[in-house]
Amino acid sequence: MPYLGHLIGSDHGLFVRAHKMDKLRRELVRRHEVERLVLKSIISSQYLPQEVRSAAVRRLADQPSNYSPGKLVWHCIYTRRAMGHVKEFKMSRITFRRMARHSLLPGLWPQIRGKRATP
After folding, report:
1. Which one of 56, 95, 100, 107 counts the least CB within 10 Å of its CB?
2. What family name appears in the similarity comment (predicted)?
3. How confident is the model at residue 117 (pLDDT cuts 50, 70, 90)?
C-alpha cells in the first residue's frame, strides 16, 4: 500500500506500533476466550458451592485486562481514531471520505455532484 500520510495525517511509525499492539491484544483475547467463558459459567452457576464460585471470581479478576474482549475497540487502521468507524473498510469516516475523494479505495467511484434536474 502506498504511503498515504499526506492524505490522512498519520505518522507511519505510530501506525506500525499501534497495529502490532492491536494484533497482540486480539491474539490474547482469542487465546484466553475459552478459559474466560468457563470461569464465567462457573460464576453464574447456581448449582456449585459458593467457595468454588468465589474462587472463579478471584481467578477471573486476577487475569490481565488485555484478555477481556471488552477492551477491544475498533480503531481506524490509519489514524487509530476510535469513533465514527466504517467497519467494512476498517477506517474512520473522515479517512474514508478523504481516500474515497482521491479514488484510493478499490470498488468505489467518486460521485459527481451536480445540479439537480428540475422537472
Report:
1. 107
2. Belongs to the universal ribosomal protein uS14 family.
3. very low
What letter represents residue 70's amino acid? G
Residue with the larger pLDDT of the pair 16 and 2: 16
Is residue 60 within 8 A of residue 43, CB to CB? The reply is: yes
**pLDDT average, residue stretch 58-68:** 91
How far apart, in whole angstroms, are the C-alpha atoms of residue 99 and residue 113? 17
In the block, cell 473522515 appears at: 94
Best CA proximity match to 8, nearest among 111, 91, 112, 107: 91
Burial group, residue 76, by CB count within 10 angstroms (0-12, 13-18, 19+)? buried
